[in-house]
């Protein structure tokens, strides 16, 4: 609120008299209220019963009290939100807020379906206009979309083919695929062979693949439906279609081979393929006819099975032996198909071999005798139609001696090819010198006249005067060779720098020379030369030796042949013929031959050009191949078009012998093409749940091959609103130019505009698509009130039923089909009555539902009452309420009474129960249960039968009466009405004690009384065993004691040790008794008896322990027996071993061995193991007799088992016989003993192995159960 303005005249007056004016503080409005936030956003949430709750605070910011009314939710999605009925959470109605006081409104959101939600929270107040809070929420769901796999290609019966269906996760939540099934007329013709979707959930936007196999068992078109179940709701489906066909052999009717010279070889390829579905089994090819002997076959189909339009090749070679037209018939054979005849023809022409030379004659410049001229070339050209054989023997010079030939011609020379030779002149005499070069090839001779002039020799000679290097590969360098320069005159000669000249001077080097500026008379020097070619061919140069004498400069002719390979691919182009789109032809072979004069290496082979992706290298022996002269390698190429039309590319062969060589590749892709006559179908307005008249779309094949039309699928947000009502396309094979028709209907289920996509699959690429649209009309439902809060209700007590009114606000009739309860607590509410179920309400009509609140547990409860109808508007009503119940909090979970003398009763102990819940606690009966229940009793009880209000308490008291010596346990159980926590159980414990003067303890157990036996087993003689002894002085004065040890049976050493740190042996008196220190009254002192058997073998060493007073009077005794472990090498077939717990086995060949177990309290158990072993050399069966000699029936149970076989006691005559045991084998018997009641304290079993009733070995099993809680 702004401050009121001060009048201008008053302000001037105040300033004139010097008064300070302050702007007034803004006044608070008398009634003003505001909310803590203008908006509340929920989610994203998963559709279903889950809820989310947020709060809005309403604050009185004015100066007067304000009344806040019951909030409500309005807007399009008001049924998805509900608010607490009163600000502050009280019962329905209004609340009054003082200035600066606030209250809280709880707003809850739950959505039964996916999609965004918006509404407005309206809070009426007495401060002016209603307060509003904008409510919004988003939901997340999983979504699924299946790709159209297209039709399965035609195949034969029994031959499988596969297609992949891509599954896309289109929702916000990860997609979890739970199952894949097939349905429809031919479901058994399709099967699942791969499911990546089952491995893990697919994230939003991700994909996974399902692979389906089509394996027809009968001929014809087959259809089925693939169904994919997931967490995206109803299973998604896609149509599957496949068909069978019959393959037919195809080949050209004839093939003609170009004119071929006699003695040469011509060739032509015959492309063989099959049309239709399936494969043909190849059965060979043969030649027949008048001139069949003039042709040969290379059968490239022999290793292939012809599949679809993928061709293989039969190569026909033409090898004529005489001139004229030659014909034959090529017969192609397949299994189960008629033979195919191909007419073969070729023309043989006479071979002509014509050699031309250039120049026709050679004339050399004057040359000093005994020196060589620079070489001059003669070019030889094959101008005939057959190969020209060239070798070193082809060339000769007559007369020989002054002219020589350097040869560098590959052989043979193909027609039109040429090569060059070099001629050198080295005169031996002065004057004109003549000779003739003769070239002989294929029986023909060509001559070239040679002439030159010899001049007088110089005093300088260079030897040798001619150097011809051995053929050297390009890039290599020869070793150094020397030429000697000699001064044959009588005076010194000056030498200028020696250089290289001639056309190939850069192909040679002078790495060294000993020639200086002066060469004395009669002296010599050397020039070193190397050949280092950088390009292929005959290389010629001259060593130039300038001197100061006549004839300078002097020269030496140098020649060398640089070798390099040359890759020659054949054929120079390959036409792979027509092939169906998506198929692959058979391979064609390109042979690369090194026709050069040296070795070479193929670097790489690749396909280049505009359509390179349509051609494939199927085999390649050329990459990295090192080819010697005339060696070959091969590259196999094939054609795999991915589109219709002509395709071309180049096979590029790169190498180290120059520029890359190429082979032209060509082919033609054939395929079908689908077109549809409309891009959209609009059904206009259609009443909700009514079905429209059908609309049609026509599919036409505008391609060159048959079009296989697959399933027609509907997709999009409203795909379920449309249906394909007629379809003569699915599974059809449309010939070029043929058509088929599909019809679609729409049945809208709501008033909104409906849109979907009709997708028609086919094998000619992307599916044909038609957009579908329609608009539905329907009724609108409204429910009053929009939400219902039942307030607080006692748990287990239902509220009164409350009515809800459903109204049809039009424009169409509203059909109500069902109701349900969902959300967090649907079990807390009941639908008790309805006039709505199954009703159809005209516009403006109403019906009523009755609901009550019946909470099963305490706390706030909420649910949604859902309405199922065919209209829009309200589909859920928010229900809420609070359940009240008692909660029990005991003051303790255990009452421990400690030690109580036997026969005495303790003081009572009390457990207090406090009701921390929100309803009265009603306590029922109390009881004491457990093993020692008779030792405890409830002595006082203020709980049972008296309601305990919230926050109030009551108490139960218990007393303990000590019975038999030892611990006692039981449980106090208190029943009440506090739900799942009833009954409350309190543990009861106590110890009944006895009064004895002395206790003597064995390891882990307590023994009392006289002549008790304790047995233990050690592994071998010389091993020490320790027994624990304890003295309790229960007199009122201190005493000292003595231990007297008496050994019997096998020899052993025995001593008593104090157990302090460090342990030490007790001192002895004159009689050898071990003397203790003084034991204070009521104290317990522990000692160790250490026994070490010293006799060899399996023995028993007995030591009797007598406790004496300091005056030597006997107080109490125990006896120990220390056994050595049982040997395993006895010879009897009826050996008996025994052990207890983790102790080693005892017994075996030694009789009367004893094993003892620790003391047992009531309810405790222990076990022994008996072993019957055959140590003889023959197989036998061993009997077992068990005799109980303690007479303690009723205090213990004894269970004996051999595996799963139970042996019943008594067994005086032997109740068990082992299976036949091989030598060295044994059978184990388990003896379990459990103390079930007080009374007798020991069990004694006598075990005997039997040979047909005769006792062989005997052992004893003893439990000493004397127990004293004070010592233990």
Task: Describe this entry's structure for a reader.
Strand 55 (645-655) and strand 56 (661-670) form a beta hairpin. The protein contains 1 helix and 105 strands. The chain is mostly beta strands and 1272 residues long. The chain folds into 11 domains: 33-139, Immunoglobulins (Immunoglobulin-like); 144-244, Immunoglobulins (Immunoglobulin-like), CATH 2.60.40; 247-351, Immunoglobulins (Immunoglobulin-like, Sandwich); 358-457, Immunoglobulin-like; 459-491 and 513-563, Immunoglobulin-like, CATH 2.60.40.10; 567-623 and 649-669; 674-777, Immunoglobulin-like (Sandwich); 781-882, Immunoglobulin-like (Sandwich), CATH 2.60.40; and more. The longest helix has 9 residues, at 8-16. Residues 1-28, 994-1011 and 1265-1272 have low confidence and may be disordered. 1% of the residues lie in helices and 55% in strands. The strands form 26 sheets. The protein has a 6-stranded antiparallel beta sheet, with no helix packed on it.
Mean pLDDT figure: 82
- Determine the fraction of residues in helical runs and give it as a percent range: under 10%
The number of helical runs is: 1
Tell me the distance between the termini: 86 Å
Largest sheet: 6 strands, antiparallel
Spatial strand sequence of the major β-sheet: 96-95-98-103-100-101
User: Strand content of the residues, in percent?
Assistant: over 45%
What global shape is seen?
extended
Class by SSE composition: mainly beta
The CATH class name of the largest domain reads Mainly Beta
The third-level CATH topology of the largest domain is Immunoglobulin-like
Q: What is the β-strand count? A: 105
Tell me the CATH architecture of the largest domain. Answer: Sandwich
Protein name: Abnormal spindle-like microcephaly-associated protein ASH domain-containing protein
Keywords: Cytoplasm, Signal
Subcellular location: Cytoplasm
Main location: cytoplasm
């Amino acid at each position: 609120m702004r401050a009121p303005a001060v009048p201008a005249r008053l302000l001037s007056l105040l300033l004139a008299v010097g008064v300070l004016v302050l702007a007034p503080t803004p006044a608070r409005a008398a009634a003003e209220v505001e909310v803590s936030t203008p908006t509340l956003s929920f989610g994203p949430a998963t559709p279903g019963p889950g809820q989310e709750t947020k709060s809005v605070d309403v604050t009185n910011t004015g100066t007067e009290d304000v009344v806040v009314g019951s909030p409500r939710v309005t807007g399009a999605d008001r049924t998805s939100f509900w608010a607490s009925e009163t600000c502050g959470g009280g019962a329905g109605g209004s609340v009054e807020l003082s200035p600066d006081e606030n209250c809280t409104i709880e707003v809850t959101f739950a959505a039964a379906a996916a999609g965004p939600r918006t509404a407005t929270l309206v809070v009426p107040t007495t401060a002016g206009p209603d307060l509003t809070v904008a409510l919004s929420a988003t939901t997340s769901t999983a979504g699924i979309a299946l790709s159209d796999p297209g039709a399965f290609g035609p195949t034969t019966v029994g031959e499988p083919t596969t297609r992949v269906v891509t599954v896309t996760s289109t929702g916000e939540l990860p997609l979890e695929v739970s199952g894949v099934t097939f349905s429809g007329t031919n479901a058994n013709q399709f099967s699942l062979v791969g499911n990546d979707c089952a491995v893990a959930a697919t994230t939003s936007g991700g994909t996974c693949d399902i692979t389906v196999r089509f394996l027809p068992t009968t001929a014809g078109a087959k259809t089925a439906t693939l169904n994919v179940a997931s967490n995206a709701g109803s299973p998604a489906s896609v149509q599957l279609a496949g068909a069978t066909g019959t393959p037919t052999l195809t080949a050209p009717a004839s093939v003609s081979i170009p004119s071929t010279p006699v003695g040469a070889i011509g060739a032509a390829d015959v492309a063989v393929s099959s049309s239709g579905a399936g494969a043909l089994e190849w059965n060979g090819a043969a030649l027949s006819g008048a001139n069949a002997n003039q042709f040969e076959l290379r059968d490239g189909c022999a290793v292939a099975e012809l599949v679809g339009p993928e061709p293989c090749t039969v190569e026909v070679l033409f090898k004529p032996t005489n001139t004229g037209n030659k014909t034959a018939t090529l017969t192609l054979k397949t299994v189960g198909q008629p033979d195919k005849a191909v007419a073969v023809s070729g023309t043989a022409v006479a071979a002509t071999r014509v050699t031309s030379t250039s120049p026709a004659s050679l004339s050399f410049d004057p040359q000093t005798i005994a020196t060589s001229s620079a070489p001059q070339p003669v070019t030889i050209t094959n101008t005939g139609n057959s190969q020209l054989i060239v070798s070193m023997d082809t060339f000769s010079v007559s007369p020989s001696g002054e002219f020589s030939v350097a040869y560098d011609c590959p052989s043979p020379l193909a027609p039109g090819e040429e090569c060059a030779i070099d001629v050198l002149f080295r005169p031996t005499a002065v004057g004109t010198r003549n000779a003739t070069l003769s070239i002989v090839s294929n029986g023909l001779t060509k001559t070239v006249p040679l002439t030159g002039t010899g001049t007088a020799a110089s005093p300088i000679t260079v030897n040798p005067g001619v150097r011809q290097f051995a053929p050297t590969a390009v890039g290599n360098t020869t070793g150094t060779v020397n030429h000697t320069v000699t001064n044959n005159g009588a005076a010194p000669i000056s030498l200028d720098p020696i250089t290289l000249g001639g056309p190939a001077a850069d192909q040679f080097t002078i790495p060294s020379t000993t020639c200086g500026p002066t060469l004395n008379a009669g002296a010599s020097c050397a020039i070193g030369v190397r050949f280092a070619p950088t390009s292929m061919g005959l290389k010629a140069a001259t060593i130039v030796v300038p001197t100061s004498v006549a004839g300078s400069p002097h020269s030496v002719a140098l020649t060398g042949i640089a070798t390099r390979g040359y890759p020659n691919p054949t054929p120079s182009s390959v036409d792979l013929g027509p092939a169906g789109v998506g198929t692959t032809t058979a391979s064609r072979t390109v042979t690369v031959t090194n026709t050069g004069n040296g070795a070479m290496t193929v670097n790489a082979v690749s396909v280049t050009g505009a359509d390179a992706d349509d051609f494939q290298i199927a085999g390649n022996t050329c990459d990295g191949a090192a080819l010697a002269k005339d060696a070959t390698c091969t590259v196999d190429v094939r054609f795999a078009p991915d589109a219709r039309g002509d395709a071309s590319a180049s096979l590029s062969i790169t190498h180290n012998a120059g520029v890359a060589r190429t082979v032209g590749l060509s082919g033609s892709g054939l395929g079908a093409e689908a077109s549809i006559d409309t891009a959209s179908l609009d059904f206009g307005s259609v009443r909700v749940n009514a079905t429209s008249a059908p609309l049609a779309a026509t599919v036409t094949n505008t391609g060159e091959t048959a079009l296989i039309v697959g399933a027609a699928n509907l997709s999009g947000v409203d795909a379920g609103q449309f249906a394909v009502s007629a379809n003569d396309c699915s599974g059809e094979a449309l010939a070029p130019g043929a058509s088929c028709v599909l019809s679609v209907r729409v049945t809208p289920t709501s008033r909104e505009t409906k849109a979907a996509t009709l997708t028609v699959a086919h094998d000619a690429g992307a599916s044909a698509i038609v957009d579908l649209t329609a608009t539905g009309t329907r009724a609108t439902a409204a429910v009053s009130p929009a939400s219902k809060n039942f307030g607080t209700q006692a748990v287990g007590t239902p509220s009164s039923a409350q009515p809800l009114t459903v109204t049809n606000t039009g424009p169409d009739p509203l059909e109500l089909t069902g109701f349900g309860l969902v959300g967090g607590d649907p079990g807390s509410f009941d639908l008790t009555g309805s006039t709505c179920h199954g009703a159809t309400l005209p516009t403006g009509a109403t019906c009523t539902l009755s609901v009550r609140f019946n909470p099963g547990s305490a706390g706030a409860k909420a649910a949604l009452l859902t309405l199922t109808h065919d209209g829009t508007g309200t589909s859920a009503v928010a229900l809420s309420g609070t359940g009240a119940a008692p909660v029990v909090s005991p003051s303790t979970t255990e009452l421990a009474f400690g030690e109580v003398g036997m026969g005495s009763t303790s003081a009572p102990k009390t457990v207090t129960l406090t009701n921390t819940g929100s309803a009265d606690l009603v306590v029922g009966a109390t009881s004491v249960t457990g093993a020692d229940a008779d030792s405890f009793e409830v002595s006082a009880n203020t709980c049972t039968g008296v309601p305990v209000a919230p926050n109030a308490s009551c108490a139960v008291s218990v007393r303990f009466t000590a019975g038999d010596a030892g611990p006692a346990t039981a449980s106090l159980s208190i029943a009440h009405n506090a739900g799942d926590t009833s009954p409350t159980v309190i543990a009861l414990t106590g110890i009944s004690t006895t009064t004895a003067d002395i206790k003597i303890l064995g390891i882990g157990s307590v023994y009392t009384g006289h002549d008790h036996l304790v047995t233990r087993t050690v592994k071998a003689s010389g091993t020490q065993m320790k027994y624990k002894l304890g003295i309790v002085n229960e007199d009122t004065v201190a005493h000292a004691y003595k231990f007297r040890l008496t050994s019997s049976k096998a020899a052993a050493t025995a001593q008593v040790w104090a157990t302090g740190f460090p342990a030490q042996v007790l001192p002895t008196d004159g009689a050898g008794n071990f003397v203790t220190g003084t034991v204070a009254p009521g104290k317990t002192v522990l000692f160790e008896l250490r026994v070490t058997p010293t006799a060899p073998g399996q023995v028993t060493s007995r030591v009797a322990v007598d406790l004496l007073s300091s005056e030597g009077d006997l107080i109490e005794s125990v006896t120990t027996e220390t056994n050595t472990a049982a040997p395993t090498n006895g010879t009897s077939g009826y050996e008996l071993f025994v052990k207890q717990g983790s102790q080693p086995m005892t017994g075996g060949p030694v009789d009367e061995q004893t094993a003892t177990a620790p003391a047992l309290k009531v309810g405790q158990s222990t076990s022994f193991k008996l072993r019957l072993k055959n140590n003889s050399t023959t197989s036998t069966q061993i009997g077992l007799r068990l005799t109980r000699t303690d007479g303690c029936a009723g205090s213990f149970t004894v269970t004996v088992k051999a595996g799963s076989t139970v042996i019943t006691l008594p067994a005086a005559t032997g109740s068990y016989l082992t299976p036949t045991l091989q030598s060295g084998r044994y059978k184990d018997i388990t003896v379990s003993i459990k103390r079930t009641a007080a009374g007798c304290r020991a069990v004694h079993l006598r075990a005997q192995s039997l040979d047909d009733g005769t006792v062989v070995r005997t052992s004893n099993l003893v439990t000493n159960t004397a127990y004293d809680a004070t010592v233990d």
